[in-house]
Design brief:
This is Molybdopterin oxidoreductase. The protein is built from 21 helices and 28 strands. With 714 residues, the protein is an alpha/beta fold. The structure holds ligand MGD (2 copies), iron/sulfur cluster and molybdenum atom.
């Protein structure tokens, strides 16, 4: 990398602007910016053409991120709840609270203390959080928000080929595919810089399909759109496999277990059934099938639309089986991939904050893996807990099995399924400790809030959606008494009287330990160092300091017991005809807007990123319910209700209503906290039966800044 970038530790005269290259706080593209620093603050950020992923393009969110750093509501001191109010206290008092709150619980029943992490955390923090839970707290109950994200795709990949790198090839390969099928991925709004690869493919004559109940911006650029019924993507895949078999296109990538059963199953999915269940014209399905059959490098990419269902893992199995059986899986520019979402959504699922996992994508169930990590941590393998509850189960158990919860990098009051129920559970906790840098809705319920660090206030590495590890460089120091998150985790270990293993003198000690901890794991980063990453980013595995990285991850043989893949038979719900009622049965689906990020803690506060929290529906659906644009509508599901303004979008299926989930009081008041995918434990964020009821404007729940900045009583 030849651009001028100076590490934060370089000593320069004050007020001389210096440049620090770092990565964006938001999504999994992980665009690189040069921050222009004056007086410990970035005054400007310039995207760089040297960014190996985005090549100088960025999105609005990334550019707007600077203004959050010194937001007036930035947390700069610990806040402790006293007489119902969160009041500023010093770190000593905060840590005294932690000691008194947690020490007796840890002595009596460590599993009563839960830890909830995030795919926004750097690899080093991910690693440290997992170590903190297992070694300092000794609790089984740690999991993280990635369970809500690409967990179904991750589970299907792991079950099939034994490991999971979202894209097993460099993103630029997308440009060489001759058919790209985006299944429930609205990349023009969610991963904008990768549209350049999609356009490159189109320029070379590729066909691009967007499979989505809405005609999204992405669908418009793609050119081909299949407005599928929510949840029916697996059926579509089985229908394609049916025709590929009929058309003699089956030539598996490699021998594998389960081939025959999967091929038999596809016989039951002829085009008429598929068109009916997916709610699309048979002619459109046949056009896609011909395109797939004729393509030399078809690439299927899933987003959350296909994955966030109670049968999300099975849906991905169906798509993955198709790519595998037609011989495209693992080929450059072809096959199957999942588009990871959070900034470190990839690394965040590899290094031990998952409830069943140890660093390097090791299994907490595997005695050899336990012994390897126990040796590094200097503990008895028997002392490492077994796997505990998954994210939603952990939240649902708050106030019963779980008495105290530590949250780092997530805002489940907004983002968890059945958020109304989850909020009640969080209120029932004895202790809720939230480490955040802004007063998220979850922080506002806490008994203790610890002020953490923002992206460019801390060193670390992140791994993007193609498994590319990059440095996130520290550019400035956190304001006031805010502390680097990794130091806070060490403080917590000390507070509960378990300092051993949390005594790093510098960040570098932690980082080097993290790289070492991955040695021999499937996600092996042990050939990496900050210096190597300064020279170039690297795609894992990188097992040797002097050896190459791995742009192509999915070449057989696979890291399974016998080196073979295992294809799984997907179990899919049957989609029956709509009931004979005067009104259409409606399905609520949820997702993202280009100008907001996740639970919105940062982006809702950013004046540069305005967006509307409305219920999107087809004009015919609105008319049928006596509604017009701007009217208040109450949406009701079996799990809750909310009232929002209507917006009309002719591109959505008339039987589908869409809500963004970036605000409190929207999508997740209506989703189901109970039903989870049996394999990935993913809730069904993308399909909930819903009814619509005209409401009075006074009932509108939508007030973007609601709750922000006001003291909240528990
Ligand atoms: N602007 C912005 N960008 C983001 C984020 C953000 O919050 N805001 N979050 C980041 C994160 S963590 C993630 S995970 C990614 C997510 O990125 P995406 O997966 O692109 O995001 P979503 O909007 O959740 O879902 C994509 C599409 O799925 C469609 N959909 C809904 N149900 C179904 C279905 O059953 N089948 C199909 N085929 N499609 C369906 C929706 O209409 C939507 O257009 O975005 C990342 N980037
Ligand atoms: N209905 C519905 N619900 C969904 C989804 C959907 O599509 N529909 N998508 C799901 C998906 S894919 C995801 S990924 C989740 C995301 O939802 P959440 O898990 O809530 O994630 P964020 O909104 O990113 O929350 C991050 C919180 O942590 C803070 N934070 C961020 N980075 C750091 C850090 O490095 N240190 C500290 N100390 N704090 C930090 C932020 O200020 C914010 O308050 O939502 C899920 N929920
Ligand atoms: S949000 Fe994603 S696409 Fe936008 S600048 Fe950041 S990393 Fe790039
Ligand atoms: Mo996500």
């Amino acid at each position: 990398m030849s651009a001028p970038h100076v590490s934060a530790s370089s000593v320069l005269p004050p007020a001389v602007p210096r440049l620090v290259r770092t990565t964006c706080p938001y999504c999994a593209v992980q665009c690189n910016f040069d921050l222009h620093i004056e007086n410990n603050l970035p005054v400007k950020s310039t995207p760089t053409k040297e960014c190996p992923v985005a090549h100088g393009t960025v999105c609005k969110k990334g550019l707007a991120a600077l203004s959050d750093l010194r937001h007036p509501e930035r947390l700069t001191t610990p806040l402790l709840r006293k007489n119902g109010q969160l009041v500023p206290v010093g770190w000593a008092e905060a840590m005294a609270y932690v000691r008194e709150a947690l020490t007796p619980m840890l002595a009596a029943n460590p599993d009563a203390v839960g830890v909830y992490g995030s795919g926004s955390l750097t690899n080093e923090k991910t690693y440290l959080l997992g170590k903190f839970a297992r070694l300092a707290l000794k609790t089984a109950n740690i999991d993280y928000n990635g369970r809500y994200c690409m967990a179904s795709a991750s589970t299907a990949l792991n079950r099939t080929v034994g490991y999971d790198r979202g894209l097993g090839f460099p993103l630029s390969d997308m440009g060489t595919s001759d058919l790209i099928v985006l299944v429930g991925a609205n990349i023009a709004e969610t991963l904008p810089p990768i549209m350049q690869y999609l356009k490159a493919a189109k320029d070379r004559g590729a066909l691009v399909y967007a499979i989505d109940p809405r005609a999204t911006t992405t669908a418009k650029v793609a050119g081909k759109h299949l407005g599928i019924r929510p949840g029916s993507d697996g059926v579509l895949a089985l229908g394609l496999l049916h025709l590929m078999k009929q058309w003699n296109k089956i030539r598996p990538t490699a021998t594998a277990h389960g081939l025959t059963g999967v091929l038999w199953q596809a016989d039951d999915y002829p085009p008429a059934r598929v068109a009916h269940e997916c709610g699309i014209p048979e002619s459109e399905f046949m056009a896609l099938a011909h395109a797939y059959a004729n393509a030399t490098k078809p690439l299927i990419l899933t987003g959350r639309g296909a994955e966030q269902h109670a049968h999300g893992t099975d849906t991905v199995h169906a798509l993955l089986n198709l790519a595998f059986l037609t011989g495209h899986f693992g080929k450059p520019g072809g096959g199957y991939g999942t588009l990871t979402g959070q900034g470190n959504g990839q690394g965040g699922r590899e290094h031990g904050q998952k409830t069943d996992q140890l660093p390097g994508a090791r299994s907490l169930r595997d005695p050899r893996h336990r012994a390897e990590i126990a040796a590094l941590w200097d503990c008895d393998p028997a002392d490492l807990p077994q796997p505990g509850k998954s994210a939603q189960e952990l939240l649902n158990a708050c106030g019963s099995d779980i008495e105290a919860l530590i949250v780092l990098g997530s805002n489940p009051v907004v983002s968890a399924a059945g958020a109304g129920h989850v909020t009640e559970r969080l209120r029932a906790l004895k202790h809720l400790i939230v480490i955040d840098f802004l007063p998220s809705e979850t922080a506002q319920l806490a008994t203790l809030v610890l002020p953490g660090s923002m992206w460019c206030e801390e060193e670390g590495t992140t791994t993007n959606l193609e498994g590319r590890v990059q440095r996130r460089r520290k550019a400035i120091t956190a304001p006031g008494a805010a502390r680097e998150d990794w130091r806070i985790l060490c403080d917590l270990a000390h507070a509960v009287g378990r300092p051993k293993g949390f005594e790093y003198a510098t960040f570098r000690d932690l980082q080097d330990e993290f790289f070492r901890a991955t040695r021999g794991g499937k996600a092996d980063y042990s050939g990496l160092s900050a210096e190597r990453l300064d020279r170039a980013s690297a795609q894992w595995p990188v097992p040797h300091a002097a050896g190459p990285d791995t742009p192509y991850a999915y070449a057989p043989t696979y890291p399974t017991a016998d080196g073979l893949a295992t294809l799984h038979l997907p179990t899919l719900p049957a989609f029956t005809a709509a009931p004979q009622s005067s009104k259409l049965a409606l399905t609520l689906t949820t997702g993202r807007l280009g100008n907001q990020y996740q639970s919105g803690t940062q982006t809702r506060r950013n004046a540069g990123l305005r967006a509307e929290n409305t219920a999107q529906m087809h004009p015919d659906t609105a008319r049928q319910h006596g509604l017009k644009a701007g009217d208040a509508v109450t949406l009701r599901t079996a799990h809750g209700s909310t009232t929002l303004p209507v917006s009309l979008t002719p591109g959505i299926r008339p039987d589908t209503v869409f809500l963004p989930f970036h605000w409190p009081d929207t999508a997740n008041l209506l989703t189901d906290h109970h039903t989870l995918d049996p394999h990935s434990k993913m809730p069904a964020f993308k399909a909930t039966p819903v009814t619509l009821h005209p409401a009075h404007a006074a009932e509108l729940a939508n007030e973007p800044m609601r709750g922000v900045g006001q003291p909240v009583m528990r």
